[in-house]
Amino acid sequence: METTMARRFLMLFITIALATLIVNVRGYGKSSSVGEFSGGNYPDVMRKLKAFKVSFLRHDSISLPPTSMSPSPGPSPSVRPSPRVYEVTSYGADPTGKTDSTEAILRAISDAFDVAGGSSSSDGLFLMEGIVNLGGAHINLEGGTYTISRPLRLPSTGRANFRITGGTLKASDNFPVDGYLIDLSASYDNGNEYNYEYITLRDLMLDSNFRGGGIQVVNSLRTSIDNCYIAHFTSNGILVHGGHETYIRNSFLGQHITAGGDYHERNFSATGINLMGNDNAITDVVIFSAAIGIMVSGQANTISGVHCYNKATGFGGTGIYLKLPGLTQTRIVNSYLDYTGIVAEDPVQLHISSCFFLGDAYIVLKSINGVINGVNIIDNMFSGSGKGTDIVHLDQTIGPFTNVDQVVVDRNNVKGMKIKATVARRWVQGNGSSWTVDFNLALLFPNRINIVQYALSTTGSSIFPNHALRNVTNNRIVIESDVAVPASVFVMVDQGVSSQS
To answer: From which residue to which does the signal peptide run (predicted)?
Structure first.
């Protein structure tokens, strides 16, 4: 009975549908009269009507489900987690810099540091113990310029995998003069070995407005500062204190905006980068104005591809200052010291190689406790103005270097300056029984020769004399023979190798 009623209902529905179609096709074609089909389309319309009827009959041949069954619900759409990108303008930050955006940016950072969904090192994500992985949470400055009135300090320590990118931060006129625009330091002791791990600061312009510094990184691990422009600082452009492996690369730092030859250069102050920690690297960085370009007081740091023209030596500036007497462990390679030089206190394990020194720039080895050990200054280029400036100076104002071992200053090429080295070679000719070779103009250390090698050859004489090295004091070599002969003497001396090595 139910099947018969369903078929009747279906046939009634088909009839009504066919009638509706016939009404809809009436008047088809612009030239047709009312109630008539367009001339050549009648067969096509009839075929479509028949096909429509057949399709309903096929449906009629299929048993209908009971009317009491309700349709099964379809699969609910999966909820996609929102990406952890925090756009500061959505928190009310002003990208024009006209109003203070400090609170808005700090709210964005606070949300990013929310540990909900974060993972700690115990989850197998290869972080230090007690460090929570924020999953790459990203503060996006959206290319705006934001004025801030106090440092952007991270709200809690023990966090990792977080970045701030893509905009400009400017200190307001009431920004604290001892603050840093971005401050990666702990406001309290959290008991962790490191405050943060894998924090990235990239594509940022920081204007300290002559109030404080740019970036401070304290006791952090594997921090990356990349493609940043930091200006108008009065303390440090970047300060790294403690921690491990802060990598600073592809960045520009200057207290004043200049491209060299600034009339106020003698008044430049502050420090571009201050490394007070171990195992850090500075790569492909330009420091264009500061009293000291790079200050290093931590061990095992690497400086490569750096261009320092921060403040000329003649105005009291220093390109790179190594202030860790007794255990330097620093490598400076492929860098450009432009009218400003390098100072190293009591250097121990220092390597300076493949660098270019322009404008009478030179290296100073400064005695604090009289120790210099394991120093290589090799394969560099020096270019000066012809004033007779030595390429390497000894500052023994406090006291002389008394512990000298494994020091090599050699193979440097020089134009317009004076060569200084720990290895020197000279030859003299004369007719007599004594030959003196003076190395004072070439040797770095006064009155110090550890190794002497010489060769004596006679010409125009059938006599070959007995000869010997008689004196090495005051960097002068004296060779004597038992008879007078015309001879040439070649001498090589070495100051750097200890007699106990």
So the answer is: 1-27
Q: What is the CATH number of the domain that holds 181?
A: 2.160.20.10
Q: Do the domain assignments include residue 365? A: yes
Say how many residues make up the chain. Answer: 501
Residue 283 lies in a domain: yes
Q: How many domains, the chain? A: 3
User: Cα(226)–Cα(215) distance, rounded to whole angstroms?
Assistant: 12
- Is 330 in the same domain as 223? yes
Whole-model pTM: value is 0.81
- The CA distance from 105 to 176, in Å, is 18
Query: How far apart, in Å, do the first and last CA atoms of the chain sit?
Result: 114
Residue pair 456/421 in contact (Cβ under 8 Å)? The answer is no
Q: Where in the sequence is the domain holding 141, given as residue range(s)?
A: 85-415
> What is the spatial distance between Cα 221 and Cα 242, in angstroms, rounded to a whole number?
9
Q: Is the dihedral of CA 208, 211, 213, 218 positive or negative?
A: negative
Of the three residues 375, 399, 415, the one that is the final residue of a domain is 415
The alpha carbon of residue 223 and the mean position of all alpha carbons in its chain are separated, in whole angstroms, by 9
- Where residue 153 falls (left for φ over 0; alpha for ψ -120 to 50; beta otherwise) is beta
Same domain, 29 and 91: no
- Render each residue's pLDDT in the chain as its tens digit; 501 residues: 444 554 554 455 555 544 444 444 344 443 333 333 334 454 454 455 444 444 444 444 444 444 444 444 444 444 444 568 999 999 999 999 999 999 999 999 999 998 655 555 445 456 888 888 999 999 999 999 999 999 999 988 889 999 999 999 999 999 999 999 999 998 766 667 899 999 999 999 999 999 999 999 999 999 999 999 999 999 999 999 999 999 999 999 999 999 998 999 999 999 999 999 999 999 999 999 999 999 999 999 999 999 999 999 999 999 999 999 998 999 999 999 999 999 999 999 999 999 999 999 999 999 999 999 999 999 999 999 999 999 999 999 999 999 999 999 999 999 999 999 999 999 999 999 999 999 999 999 999 999 999 999 987 778 889 999 999 999 999 999 999 999 999 999 999 776 454
